[in-house]
Design a protein that fits this description.
Elements lengths: L1 H21 L6 H24 L8 H19 L3 H23 L5 H20 L1 H4 L5 E2 L8 H24 L1 H11 L1 H6 L4 H27 L1 E2 L1 H4 L2 H14 L5 H20 L3 H16 L3 H14 L5
Antiparallel strand pairs: 1-2
Length: about 325
């Protein structure tokens, strides 16, 4: 029974991948652009969830996103580094920043860590605004269009990074890292007694999360062709990173992806019908999840729907 179910999952994933590869040939430019933004948001949601697995709630992912965006843009401006290499460099710079910041802040817990990450992102925004000679200040920076404006190639690039990100999350779940992260999340003192160094593993999770967040920022800078501090360091990015995995279901592979899909559909609908409607949606979703869906959409699937489909799964 389990083997059959595993084969069904493999078949589903193969069909899903084939559909994703063929998708650009089926849609117009608008829906192709939507797919790119959805995949970018999925990367941010999954990367945030990696850190959350250690029990740390970051509200400053925009700081790492902005670092990646400006690193890619400035490296192109200064040394004409290719956009893809600039994205990798943006991810690398974000990793270094996360390592330094992590050893300073990840000993903090709960709300204290969250406040620190917000302060980090806001401080970066102010620094970028106050150094226009380097960063362009409030005027921002322009970058060349990714692949000369070919959205199909941009689509395949961000799809590849999303698959890599999901693969990393799967590896975390399949290795001892999952045990270490879960032990730290449940009780740091007990984890320490068991020989798990909480700070070391939290910094590792922060660095993995930072790489994908920074790469996403670098991709955004070239895909959007223009960045400003208010946007890439904005609190809205950090809130989106938090809302999407919580809505989908934390500490799962599918949760952040499914949550992103639903939230982005709602956001896009409200964006074209109600000004700033997506911000209203974020607030309502958080309230609904806290009150009625503490385990997110995946919790409803596991606890309500799956037992009806497979009674032996209880």
């Amino acid at each position: 029974m389990n083997r059959s179910f595993s084969w069904k999952k493999v078949l589903f994933l193969v069909l899903l991948l084939l559909f994703a590869l063929w998708f650009p040939r089926l849609v117009d430019a608008y829906f192709l652009h939507l797919a790119v933004t959805f995949f970018l948001a999925m990367i941010l949601a999954s990367s945030w969830d990696i850190l959350a697995r250690t029990g740390q709630v970051s509200v400053g992912q925009a700081g790492l996103f902005g670092i990646g965006a400006y690193a890619a843009a400035l490296l192109f401006k200064w040394v004409h580094l290719s956009p893809v290499l600039g994205m990798l460099a943006g991810g690398g710079v974000s990793v270094v920043v996360a390592a330094l910041l992590g050893y300073l802040t990840l000993r903090l817990r709960g709300i204290y860590f969250s406040i620190t990450t917000i302060a980090f992102a806001e401080a970066l925004s102010v620094i970028w605004l106050m150094t226009p000679a380097v960063t362009g200040g409030a005027m921002g920076l322009s970058t060349p269009p990714l692949f000369g404006g070919d959205r199909q190639q941009a689509y395949y690039l961000i799809l590849g990074i999303l698959i890599f990100c999901v693969g990393v999350v799967w590896m975390i779940e399949a290795t001892r890292l999952n045990f270490a992260f879960t032990a730290i999340r449940e009780n740091e003192e007990v984890a320490n007694v068991m020989g798990i160094n909480p700070t070391r593993y939290k910094v590792l999770a922060f660095m993995i999360s930072a790489f994908f967040t920074g790469f996403a920022g670098g991709f955004y800078s070239h895909y959007n062709t223009y960045i400003i501090p208010y946007e890439v360091f904005g609190l809205g990015i950090s809130i989106a990173c938090l809302v999407m995995p919580i809505f989908g279901g934390l500490y799962t592979i599918a949760g952040p992806l499914l949550g992103t899909m639903i939230v982005k559909v709602i956001e896009e609908y409200l964006r074209v019908t109600v000004s700033y409607g997506h911000q209203i949606a974020y607030g309502l979703i958080l309230i609904l999840v806290v009150l009625f869906m503490p385990d997110g959409v995946m919790g409803i699937w596991r606890n309500k729907i799956l037992p009806l489909i497979r009674p032996d799964s209880r």
